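Quick illustration, no need to memorize.
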Amino acid sequence: MAAFLDICRFLPSAGGTTDWTYAAAVQGYQSPAAAGAVTGRLYKYRAESADLTQWEIGEGAYTSSTGTLARTTILFTSAGTTAKINFSAAPQVAIVALKEDLISIEEANAFTTTQQSQARANIAAAATPGSWTRTVIASGSGTYTIKAGCRALLVRMVGAGGGGGGGGTGPSGGTGGGGTATVFGSLTAAGGAGGGGAGNAWQSGGAASGGDINIQGGYSMPAPGAGGTSSVYQGAPGGGSMLGFGGAGGWPGQSGGPGTGYGTGGGGGGSANTSAGTGGAGGSGAGGLDKLIVSPAASYSYSVGTAGAGGAAGGGTAAAAGGPGGSGIIIIDEYY
């Protein structure tokens, strides 16, 4: 595809098979310089003799310092070949537009990737990805390297959820382990906090930063306190994340449920001591985020959060351990 010039027609300094070096503008037309020709840009031309017995249509780059239009690619000629015509005299040379240079709404154009990008920029149109791939990283750490031709990344990720606390008499249940953060380049999704053993207060969910959308993890819940006549003290449920619900609290003698999705908190363990029993508190959910990266770097360091373990069961009747949190995850969609 070539560029265009308005009403540009000129006489070159010579005929033959040499490149066209500007000598004078044809009456009523502009020179390449006056028409705004740019060095290095491709233009299509039609060269023709006065009697039209010799003509040539070709394409070449313009050089402003010498006023020369190259005869690099010959498309059609009066001889019916793609070889340069040996003009017997200097012809008139006009800058022209051919069918393949014009955007058609009736048939497909054969534009290069660069030309398509320029056309979208000219009309402020968003690029449509030709294809995409998805990579899911559910554990570990390392360096993520984008694939050849990648134009944008969509990253969704969550940290790891906290473990639920253990149930038991008084404060004897173990505290659940905290989940660790998930990191991708400058993006961070913090892990959830572990639930307190045998009751204790709620815990805030993990935060997130760097995303277009940053979502805090769900709060954990404290378990019912001790005392009264009940013989059932269920553990509290864990907090949710953007990718799932927290684990259910356990009944007496039953461990808290694990986080049911990535980044979710584990449920607290149950207990059954009527005078001092308390279920474990749930672990809180991890932070999560969504980020569209339109000018991706060549690579990114990453680390996937590790789930917090459930707290151990405490003393007393039917005390049970808390459930583990859900692990972190990174989901990467590449667009080409």
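The mean pLDDT is 90.
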